[in-house]
Design goal:
about 600 residues
Length: about 600
């Protein structure tokens, strides 16, 4: 093999080891994610399905009507909470490998995951000023170390395997930090500042929740300039230059965002996300938030990150960068957690900072080792521990084998998802199709659990058989979270209602009264539930809940509708407009 390498041109021969490393990394990524998806037997729903649906839908549009596809990108960017810009770079995978979920997950893993991993060493070099030393083997070890630390971080892959493409945001964050660390902030040209601003815009348009990260970024920039002013002779000229550059980058980002995503931008400014996402906030305070973050990443990763932060603070050359990243982390953490708890994909912004600290610790240790043998030993130990951390999360057998040391690793666990009740769900959909097909009657689902919700039934119509495709048009999308969604008035237009007994929740019952309280009305035959009869068919799900179908047999009365309205405006008097039924609606619904 090495004799063959000598036959290549010098430039290519020099790059060959890195190309082999990249190729090996890419092959492992594809093997892992495709193998994971192939072992699943599941119906994904809600956000787990939304991004895959955007991928398949945009691919079909490009295949059938390319101009309409381009227009849909523009429209979704301006108006949609879930825009399709993030799936545009994935389209080559659609046309080469098809519209299957495995193709989609592989596309995310390669286009966003792999590209972020191979870019990470460049960012590390920019931060530390070190790329492995003079010898080629040392450079290879440096790249292998950086790639392994990020590529074997299980939190990097969990959202990817669950259908999220948010990992691309980590790459954008790395790109922003690369531009920032490339030269001093006051020395940045206007062109560079605009590029940084546009990349910040790309991050927020990519996934709206990433908007918390720019808050931390610009706060960290301001804090650094003020600190430099106070500690460095109080030079007003330097302070004005630094603040002016913050204004240029921030204005570039904000102006482009308002120009290209006008309606979403205005909606974000007008929306109190602390209220509508209060159902997703259950942690008692900052210490519980930090405790969950620590448990999610695990002792091994967190110790590396803390070690890296300490090492950077101890280094005069790296201290300012450590403080910048620390303020960035603290402000983003506070901004996000005061709104809602972090879910697995939200941890990406934290991952992007923690992995820098962890990798800096590893790199700074590596550069202090003089012999190749000791450097190889360090890389081998970190590779082994990273692989053990990865295996603990994704392999039950490995977790059992590593149980004596599992306290070192992440508490997260993810195996290929398998449902054993797919036949029951299929039977439920066929029954609903038979009941509603002739008169095209509508269906509402009063359940919001991970076993049964409207999204599961709608996606199931696509997944089970072509004959059910028309059924999904007769299923209303359900309202699941009270303060976010408001009252589901479409329930009153349904001829059939699917109810889980006991009622199905995915959040606290107190935040899902539009599910639980309404389900109880049907189960007990009270208020609007009295207008329905329970059909004899019964379906049993994996969680042991029973599912029943209720058929409307008479019209609602005004008293029944008003009774439910008073009930919910009593629950939420401060959001009366979202729950109160109007006289016009009463007139409409009592005629149905």
């Amino acid at each position: 093999m090495f004799e063959r390498l000598k036959q290549f041109p010098p430039g290519l021969r020099k790059s060959a080891p890195l190309l082999i490393l990249f190729g090996f990394t890419l092959a492992l990524i594809v093997y892992f994610v495709v193998g994971f998806v192939a072992r699943e037997r599941f119906i994904y729903f809600w956000d787990y399905w939304t991004y895959y649906h955007l991928f398949a839908d945009l691919g079909r549009k490009f295949a059938d009507q390319p101009l309409k596809a381009l227009d849909s990108i523009n429209v979704s960017m301006r108006k949609s909470e879930y825009n399709n810009t993030g799936v545009v770079p994935l389209m080559p995978f659609y046309f080469i490998f098809g519209a299957g979920r495995a193709a989609y997950v592989a596309a995310v893993a390669v286009v966003y995951g792999f590209s972020t991993i191979v870019f990470f060493p460049a960012l590390l070099k920019k931060i530390t000023g070190f790329d492995g030393g003079a010898r080629r083997i040392e450079k290879l070890l440096f790249f292998a170390l950086a790639i392994a630390l990020l590529g074997l971080l299980p939190q990097f892959w969990i959202p990817v395997l669950l259908g999220y493409y948010d990992v691309g945001g980590v790459g954008l964050i790395f790109l922003i930090l690369y531009f920032y660390f490339r030269k001093g902030w006051r020395e940045q040209t206007t062109k560079n500042l605009i590029v940084i601003g546009l990349t910040v815009f790309a991050l927020v348009i990519f996934r709206r929740w990433y908007a918390y990260w720019p808050v931390g970024f610009f706060a960290a920039l301001a804090a650094r300039e003020i600190f430099s002013f106070l500690a460095g002779g109080r030079d007003l000229k330097n302070l004005k230059t630094g603040l002016k550059n913050i204004l240029i980058a921030g204005a570039a980002s904000a102006l482009v965002y308002f120009a290209l995503a006008t309606q979403i931008a205005v909606r974000m400014l007008k929306t109190d996300y602390g209220v509508i996402y209060s159902a997703y906030r259950s942690n008692a305070g900052v210490f519980e938030d930090l405790s969950k973050l620590y448990g999610y990443f695990g002792t091994f990763t967190m110790l590396l990150a803390l070690g890296g932060a300490a090492r950077m603070l101890a280094s005069k050359a790296l201290r300012a960068r450590a403080l910048f990243l620390g303020v960035l982390f603290a402000v983003t953490f506070y901004s996000f957690t005061r709104t809602q708890d972090m879910d697995f994909h939200h941890y990406y912004w934290a991952l992007s900072i923690l992995i820098i600290f962890a990798a800096v610790f590893a790199v700074e240790t590596f550069r202090r080792l003089e012999s190749l043998k000791s450097q190889t030993a360090l890389v081998s130990v970190l590779l082994l521990l990273s692989a053990a951390n990865f295996a603990t999360v994704f392999s039950g057998k490995a977790g059992t084998f590593l149980s004596p040391v599992e306290f070192l690793f992440s508490k997260a666990r993810l195996a290929p998802k398998v449902r054993n009740d797919l036949d029951e769900l299929h039977r439920l959909l066929r029954t609903l199709d038979e009941l509603t097909r002739a008169r095209r009657q509508m269906i509402y689902v009063l359940s919001s659990s991970t076993s049964l919700n409207s999204s599961i039934l709608i996606v199931g119509c696509e997944q089970f058989e072509p004959e059910l495709l028309l059924l999904k048009e007769r299923i209303f999308y359900g309202h699941d979270v009270d303060k976010r969604d408001g009252f589901p008035f479409q329930l009153y237009e349904a001829d059939f209602v699917v109810v889980a007994d006991p009622p199905g929740y995915h959040l606290r019952p107190g935040d899902q009264k539009i599910v639980g309280v309404l389900a109880e009305q049907f189960i007990k035959g009270q208020t609007v539930g009295g207008a329905f009869k329970k059909l004899p068919a019964e379906f049993t799900l994996d969680d042991a809940s029973k599912v029943f179908i209720y058929q409307k047999e008479r019209k609602y009365t005004a008293d029944e509708l008003m009774s439910v309205s008073r009930m919910f405006t009593g629950f939420y008097p401060e959001q009366r407009a979202k729950f109160e039924i109007s006289a016009e609606m009463i007139g409409k619904f009592i005629e149905n």
